[in-house]
Every structure is written in structure tokens, then in C-alpha cells.
Amino acid sequence: MNNPRAWTFISDKQKGLVDSISQYCEGAEHRCCARHLYSNFTLAHKGLALKNLFWTTARVTTVPEWKSAMNELKDISEEAYNWFLDKPPSQWTRSHFEDHSRCDILLNNLCEAFNSSIVVARDRSIFSMLEKIRHQQMIRMNAEGEAAQRWDHAFGPRIVKIIEKAESEARYLKADYEGNQKFEISSRDGLRWNVDLTEHACACRKWQLTGIPCPHAISGMLSRDIGIYEYIDPWYSKETYLKCYSPVIHPMSGLELWPELGKHPLNQPQKRK
After folding, report:
1. Which pTM was predicted?
2. DSSP, res 91
3. Considering Cα of 150, then 156, then 157, then 160, what sign does the dihedral take?
4. Whose CB among 10, 26, 255, 269 lies 3.0–4.6 Å from 31's, allowing a Cys bridge?
5. Beta strands 201-202 and 8-11, pairing class
6. Which residues pair with 183 in a beta bridge?
7. Measured between alpha carbons, how far is 132 from 255 in angstroms, rounded to an integer?
8. pLDDT, tens digit only, all 273 positions of the chain
9. Distance CA 71, CA 82 (A)
10. CA 83 to CA 38: how far, in whole Å?
């Protein structure tokens, strides 16, 4: 792997995966699926208050917010607080995530969704299973590409909805322009954030984590009539999306029409524990 720091892995934190990623992808970011972590947490620490605090500590995007949530957790249950002490926050809370991946997901739902989509194939023999998966992905790759071709915007519908929601929130914020594409944003309850459009950065870190301008940044843009979509990370663009789905999975004839290249009997694999 030429540049392991360019990679971000998310897993259910099985010990074998933790060791393997550390050994073979040294320097890569490794996150733990928060849902799996919560399943382990709730075995000994139950209750709605602890549940809400768990997800609050996982979702906050700045270290001060994380510390505040952890202190609140400690006030409610010191045992629950101590449970987290041997778990690196860089693996499970957005406040400590690196921002190079432009992704703030906490759950490995992508893997779970793929797993559920191949349930019908997993019980088949190896050839039938692989052929079923190939056929499913062939159809999906084409369908996603055709759907993206129909987008009315330079970015996907989901991104447009996120921006529209952030615009609505931004209208309740006050933006003071400091020059050099920098703003000081304040809310009605006295909170403040500094925004730098040149660096694509906000003190809340949401913009850095996702690559999508947060309400604070959008508040500054609206105050100066600056185009919002120019500041969205290009990974979300229609052009990039089409590149992802441009490779073709070629159609295949059935197994009975495959050419014979000679018969080589398969030996039973050696059993081992």
C-alpha cells in the first residue's frame, strides 16, 4: 500500500482485523462501528440516559464537546465512564476522526447492506454464488450510472437536500465578515464559530469531516452572496459519481456454454481448526 494514510477502515473491531490492519496498513485510520460498540456497552450499562450519552459522545465533532459529554457520563455512572478508558477515541467518536476521508460515518451499514443483498446467493455452491453476485452487481452498476445521468444538479439529490437543510439553519445565525474569506459566526444563545472559506474549515469541524459546508459556513456565504455549491468537495459531484460507475461488468453466457479447457479434478481441501 503506497500511502496507507489515505485509507480509512471501519469494522466491528474483531481482534484479528485490528491486528491485521495495524500490521499491513500501518498509518491507516481504523474506526470501530459504533453500533457494535454500543451492543457491548449495553451488556453491563443499561438505561436511556446512558444510551443517549453514548450516542452523544460518538456524534460530537469537537474535542471540547466530547470532554463535556464524557464528564456528564462520569457524573451519571463512573463504571460506564471507565468502560471507555481502554478504547481509543480515534476509533469511535467523530471528535477524534481524521478528516482526510471526507466521511464521518459511525456505522458499517455499507457492509451490512451488501451482506443482506447477497443472502439469496450465499447458500449456493461457489460457482452459483459468484455468478449470482456478478449478475446483481452488473445490473446495479448500470442502474446507478443511468440514475446519475438523470440528475438535474451538479451534485447528487442527497447532497442537495443536506445543503437545503443547512441553508435553513444558517438563516438563524449572524455572520460577521473579517476579510480574507474569514467569518465569525454567532448564534442567538451566544455561541461562536470561526469559518475560513479558503481552507474549507469551520471550528465545528463538520465541514472538514464531510467535505460539505456546515450551516456556519453557509451563513457566511449567504451574507456575502457567495456560491455554496462551489465549496462542496468534488467527491460528491455528478462527474465523480459517473466515474465510479463507468466500469462495466460484462454479461456472460451460462455455465453450459463455457469452453472446456481440460478436466482437472478438485481435491478436497485439508481440514484444519
Report:
1. 0.86
2. G
3. negative
4. 10
5. unpaired
6. 177, 195
7. 12
8. 566 667 888 888 777 787 888 888 888 899 999 999 999 999 999 999 999 999 999 999 999 999 999 999 999 999 999 999 989 999 999 999 999 999 999 998 888 888 888 888 888 888 889 999 999 999 999 999 999 999 999 999 999 999 999 999 999 999 999 999 999 999 999 999 999 999 999 999 999 999 999 999 999 999 999 999 999 999 999 999 999 999 989 999 987 888 877 767 777 778 877
9. 11
10. 11
List C-alpha distances in Å: 148 to 142, 151, 156.
10, 5, 8
C-alpha cell of residue 12:
466491528
d(CA 113, CA 121): 14
Q: How far apart are CA 178 and CA 164, in angstroms?
A: 25
Cell 454500543: give the residue.
38
- Gap between the Cα atoms of 181 and 196, Å rounded: 6
Paired residues of 201 in beta bridges: 196
Beta bridge partners, 74, equal: none
User: Helix %, strand %, coil % for the chain, to 5?
Assistant: 50, 10, 40
For the record, the C-alpha cell of 267 comes out as 481435491
Structural domain boundaries in the chain: 4-96, 157-233
**CA 43, 11, 19 angle in degrees (round to 5)?**
100
In this prediction, residue 271 carries a pLDDT of 82
Instruction: Report the Cα–Cα distance between both ends of the chain, in Å, rounded.
Output: 30
